[in-house]
TrEMBL record:
Belongs to the CoaE family. The lineage of its organism: Eukaryota, Metazoa, Chordata, Craniata, Vertebrata. CDD domains: DPCK (cd02022). Keywords: ATP-binding, Membrane, Nucleotide-binding, Transmembrane, Transmembrane helix. It comes from the Eukaryota. The chain crosses the membrane at residues 205-226. GO terms for biological process: coenzyme A biosynthetic process. Pfam families: CoaE. GO terms for molecular function: ATP binding; dephospho-CoA kinase activity. InterPro entries: Depp_CoAkinase (IPR001977), P-loop_NTPase (IPR027417). It comes from Piprites chloris. The gene is Dcakd. GO terms for cellular component: cytoplasm. This is Dephospho-CoA kinase domain-containing protein.
């Protein structure tokens, strides 16, 4: 059995969740990195204890969960704190993603889509992906969506957007682009085309690979994970 990984990303308010919803509807295995990121910091987790140790109890909500907004404000303005938080959470997120990838592999899925908001910012992960998909939205539409969705004024929306690598720049790195600047129907058609490409993608090169070599991508991910855990 052969398996490959597909990375999916998009800027803030680019409409990635619409694309994910269609892919799930088509029966794709989608692993949500944001959801995992929330789960690995739940109370009683290893990451939760470490975050408390470094950031103090003032970032807790009354129910003991981490106040993501308070923590977000701290790391937004202090890069060294952001790096510290990443060094606590990333190995845990990676471990959980790997567990889910292996689960789908065992279930016989031929590819898994990894929904990673900052895929292009953390360039290390892209080399494990056979394809990378960018959900694109033109800047004015992205800004308008973000203001509407989060109730932000223009300056706050711009600050959020400019904290990420511009979508224009990410365009050159992605192997596939879904332009979500138009209506839902146009986006849906593009997702259906992408899905057909992924289904056809077990081209003859892959078909000739031995199953052992086919999980080389997974092997690389396992290696990366081990290196994280040891260092």
């Amino acid at each position: 059995s052969i398996m490959f990984l597909v990375g999916l990303s998009g800027g803030i308010a680019s409409g990635k969740s619409t694309v994910v919803a269609v892919l799930r509807e088509l029966g794709c295995a989608v692993i949500d990195a944001d959801l995992i990121a929330r789960e690995v910091v739940q109370p009683h987790s290893k990451a939760h204890q470490q975050i408390l140790q470094y950031f103090g109890t003032e970032i807790l909500l009354e129910n003991g969960e981490i106040n993501r907004e308070a923590l977000g404000n701290i790391i937004f303005s202090q890069p060294e704190k952001r790096r510290l938080l990443n060094s606590i959470t990333h190995p845990e997120i990676l471990k959980e993603m790997l567990k889910q990838i292996l689960k789908y592999f065992v279930l016989g899925y031929r590819y898994v889509i990894l929904d990673i908001p900052l895929l292009f910012e953390t360039r290390g992960l892209t080399k494990f992906m056979k394809y990378t998909v960018l959900v694109y939205c033109d800047p004015p539409a992205q800004r308008a969506r973000l203001m509407r969705r989060n109730g932000l004024d223009a300056a706050a929306a711009d600050a959020r957007i400019s904290s990420q690598i511009p979508l224009e720049e990410k365009l050159q790195w992605a192997t596939h682009v879904i332009d979500n600047s138009g209506d839902r129907e146009s986006t849906r058609r593009q997702v259906l085309r992408l899905h057909a490409r992924l289904e056809d993608s077990l081209d003859f090169l892959w078909a000739r690979l031995a199953a052992g070599a086919a999980v080389a991508g997974l092997g690389g991910l396992v290696f990366l994970l081990l290196r994280h855990l040891i260092s």
